[in-house]
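Reviewers of the previous submission asked for a worked example of the structure-prediction workflow described in the proposal, so we include one complete record here. The input consisted solely of the amino acid sequence. No template or homolog information was supplied to the procedure at any stage.
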Amino acid sequence: MIRISGTTRLYAVLGDPISQVQAPAMLNPVFAELGVDAVLVPVHVETAHLADVVTGLQRIGNLDGLLITVPHKIETCAFADVLSPAVHAAGSTNAMRRERDGRWTAENFDGVGFVLGMAAAGHQLAGRRVTLAGAGGAAGAIAAAVLDAGAARLHVCDPDEERLSALLDRLAARWPDRVAVGPTPELERADVAVNATPLGLRPDDPLPFDPALLPVGAVVADIVMKPRETPLLRAAAAAHRPVHHGAHMLSHQLDLYREFFRLAEPSPA
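From that input alone, the workflow returned the following structure tokens.
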């Protein structure tokens, strides 16, 4: 049971929409398990108010960290003093920590969480051909992690040409000749196809791609966590393609959050 008092430390997860986030239900029990006097709360932030909200939260003396979800993962980097190598590669952040000197460090665990979740489900990425729908914050992190895990080829599609070009520049600088981009997904030869867009959060969203166009045996992964059975995953299952749910990406970030937020250490005074 969460007990909030005058000594409770605060964490917030920022997004728009916010009703789908699973982080409070997963991280607050970790606080309780570790005996950490802290609570993580959802904060609904429209894009137009992001700067006001983030800078305001950073001035709260007992706020120790932020988690960031769609659509703020790219823009929130501007409010960090230190960017990790993963943030530089992804161009986005999903976690920020207040340092003891007051500075803010940005990290991104989406990519490694996705790769760990795939591996735990028996889906290896080394040597595979991966198609990724989306070039936003989570997609950038997943793209970098997939390549770092040894994917033979990554194709990224997104209608936003500027965002797509920026992602290609970052990835190709480190992984030349293994990345391609385009406005539509390459499905016919893919071993793994990933939806890293928000499509699927709302019941009337179109599918990010048609899973029936994938080869038999190709894995269809969706990073949308609520609903668990997204329209894409239902369509993939109907087409007899193996599916991989979005919750795996978050559940495999919990230990990383514990370390990043120093939850086993005493809270700052």
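Residues 237 and 243 are 7 Å apart (CA to CA). We consider this example representative of the routine output the project will generate in years two and three.
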